[in-house]
Known about the structure:
13% of the residues lie in helices and 28% in strands. By secondary structure, it is of the alpha/beta class. The longest helix has 13 residues, at 12-24.
Amino acid sequence: MKSKLLIIGAGGHGKVVAEIAMKMNRWSEIAFLDNNESKRSSLKFEVIGKSDDAFRYICGYDLFVAIGDNRIREELQEKLEKAGASIPVLVHPQSIIGNDVSIGMGTVLMAGVIINCCSKVGKGCIVNTGATIDHDNVIEDFVHLSPGTHIAGNVRIGKGTWIGIGGLVSNNVSIITRSIIGAGAVVVKDINTAGTYVGVPARGV
Ligand SMILES: CC(=O)SCCNC(=O)CCNC(=O)[C@H](O)C(C)(C)COP(=O)(O)OP(=O)(O)OC[C@H]1O[C@@H](n2cnc3c(N)ncnc32)[C@H](O)[C@@H]1OP(=O)(O)O
């Protein structure tokens, strides 16, 4: 772990990530990278370059990709990993994590998150504000659980899937890789074909 943290993405998501990093009190310095040249700072932190500059900072900084789009986040994090970057896990101090829970690098747990025992959260995931993940779940890499989503027990969520705000997933359900579950949807049975699903119960659109 390095003493400085560089957050890639200075937008709304990046700001929340920076706040969590601040609350963790682990880094003496926090800065951003962002491709928007007009953005000079975010919160009180300086934007010191563009996203592509990240590779130049690998030696001096921990790097965290704060980009909401699952595919873009995945692509950049994978490249940074290959280049040997140190990529932390960010955990809001007001989140609750049970026993035998594993969390992959580049994942952020936001305020009010609860993860119960024996669940596995992959790398590069966003577990957004107030989301809950119950027992024995597998949340694969680069998943985004939006604010207020609730995942029951024994659920598997495939790589790169996005669950919209307030989405619910019943117990013993499996959702295939790169699915999109709309805001407020309730998934009550397995989703085996990638696509967009909305409503109660969730159906393909
Ligand atoms: C901190 C943060 O901000 S984290 C981000 C939180 N944001 C979210 O959770 C947003 C989630 N996004 C959604 O729910 C979107 O509506 C999506 C991704 C499901 C669909 O978006 P699009 O692909 O653009 O679909 P589009 O808006 O064209 O809708 C297609 C149809 O599905 C319906 N639909 C879309 N979303 C939903 C929904 N959540 N529930 C029910 N019906 C929906 C639309 O009304 C439309 O129906 P129609 O054809 O009868 O008019």
